Amino acid sequence: MIKRLRIKFIIIAFSAVLLILGLIVTIMNVSNYSRVRDDADSKLQELYNAGGSYFLKNRWSVINEDTGLANGQEINNRMMKTLINYQGDDSMDQRPGDDFPDPFADKDKDDIAKTIFVTFIKVKSNDTLYRQSSSQSLTEDSMYSMYEATLSTGYSNGYVDKYWRYYHISNEQGDDFVLMVDNSTQIFNSRNFLKSSLLISATGLLAFLMIIVVGSYIIFKPVEEAYLKQKRFISNAAHELKTPLTIISANNEVEEMLLGENEQTHAITKQVSKLTGMVNSLTKLALLEENYKLEKTEKFQIDEAVLDVVDSYSQKFKERKLDIITDVKPNIIYDGDEGLFRVLVSILLDNAFKYSIKYIKVNVSKEVDKIIISISNDSDDLADGAHPELFERFYRTENKRASNIQGSGIGLSIAYEIVMVHKGKITAEASNNVYTIKVVL
User: Fold this and answer.
1) pLDDT per position as a tens digit, 50-73
2) Average pLDDT in the 282-304 region?
């Protein structure tokens, strides 16, 4: 049990750190990617504001749209700015000998010089396509292919050829601009940042896992010691109680033989039987908690085992005039401890028998690779919803009917441990005065 708690603690702690660290890494990398994208968009906006060229001395090639190649004709920046009716910022300094202001007078010239760009402008007034590029590696075909790809996307901005950020816009007089900047260096840096952050995070998580595994032994040591003391107390108490109970029972039988059965001897027999059942249950519970791994399993038919246990209760059901409704699918094979499974079904049937009013339903089915056993009965004074507290040892419901029903409150605790031993799940819930315990194996 302590081992299960320690494993749960490690899983929860590790999952929490993983979630928080994953969130931090995601935010960092999304922010970094957004910054890379925004920087590229800022350069594209500056390029458009400058009339499509970072360099005033560069020339524009006239492009044959049938071939995508330059036809040998060129115009200078002054002519292009006239064609697109470029309006520069008069507040900027002008370069000597130029008729147009320098839009990058207050920018880092080294940064501008490193920016690789390609600009296509389809001038409306003469229906001519022009191109200017600072790239030394791109061929004319590849530049024109990128241009066509940007037009085919239908978006005003995005990425083309993986690393080129583009901006597609028209000015007031209808000239069509397609501007592209090479963003490969920034994208590679962003990816390296992602890899580094993931590697550092993985290393940190591994270190945290090692610390939390070692720390869990220290954290749970006092709990384990207290739990072992409790188990020893229960085991010793159960052992010590067996002898006096046996003596009391024997003396009571002798008195009944000599004086006959009376009200006092009947009450003693009833209480001894109750205490004996509680002692046996405590012993069984302690054994289950101590040896929670199945040492030996075998395949058996669950449907036959359930129907066999139900049949053993048939006389009790008749005496209380309870209807037993079974819906057990045949040929359901399970690999487990058949003896413990029969105890589980017996406990659940006994619990339903005690609290039912008119009927008990037993359902056994298989869904994909899961076996589902549910036992339900009509009841009263039980609030709708899940009731995990019913599996706590010595728990008894506080309604009036429960106070008149014999029991130690250990049965469902044993059922819970049997299910845990088989690595299953058990739940209890009530709805519209119908109480159901479901086991999934």
Assistant:
1) 888 876 677 899 999 888 899 889
2) 73
Two structure tokens written together for 337: 């401890």
* Pairwise CA distance, residues 220 & 9, whole Å: 10
Q: Class of the 295-440 domain?
A: alpha beta
For the segment 232-254, the average pLDDT, to the nearest whole number, is 73
Quote the CA–CA distance of 101 and 195 in Å, as a whole number: 43
Average pLDDT score over the chain: 83
Residue type, 223: V
Q: What percent of the chain has pLDDT over 70?
A: 82
Find, among 290, 291, 288, 285, the residue nearest to 394 by Cα.
285
Please compute Rg for the chain using Cα positions: 41
Is the pLDDT at 106 greater than 90, yes or no? no
Going by the DSSP 8-state scheme, the letter that residue 50 receives in this structure is T
- Residues 413-421 have a mean pLDDT of 85
Higher pLDDT, 31 or 6: 31
Residue 227 DSSP symbol: H
Distances (CA, A) of 114 to 43, 108, 110, 161, 185: 12, 10, 6, 20, 11
Long-range contact set of residues 232-241: C-beta below 8 Å, sequence gap at least 24: 234/282, 234/285, 234/286, 235/282, 235/283, 235/286, 237/282, 238/279, 238/280, 238/282, 238/283, 238/286, 239/283, 241/275, 241/279
Please, where in the chain does CATH 3.30.565.10 lie? Answer: 295-440
Checking DSSP bridges between strand 323-328 and strand 359-367, what pairing results, if any? Answer: parallel
Measured CA to CA, the distance from residue 327 to residue 329 in angstroms comes to 7
* Separation between Cα atoms, residue 327 and residue 366, nearest integer Å: 12
**How many helices (H) does the chain have, and how many strands (E)?**
11, 15
Closest C-alpha among 74, 50, 59, 140 to residue 148 = 140
- Cβ-Cβ contacts under 8 Å for 50 (sequence gap 6 or more): 103, 104
pLDDT of residue 281: 63
Nearest Cα to Cα of residue 354 among 286, 306, 412: 412
Mean pLDDT calculated for residue range 113-131: 89
Spell out the alpha helix ranges (H) of 139-183.
140-153
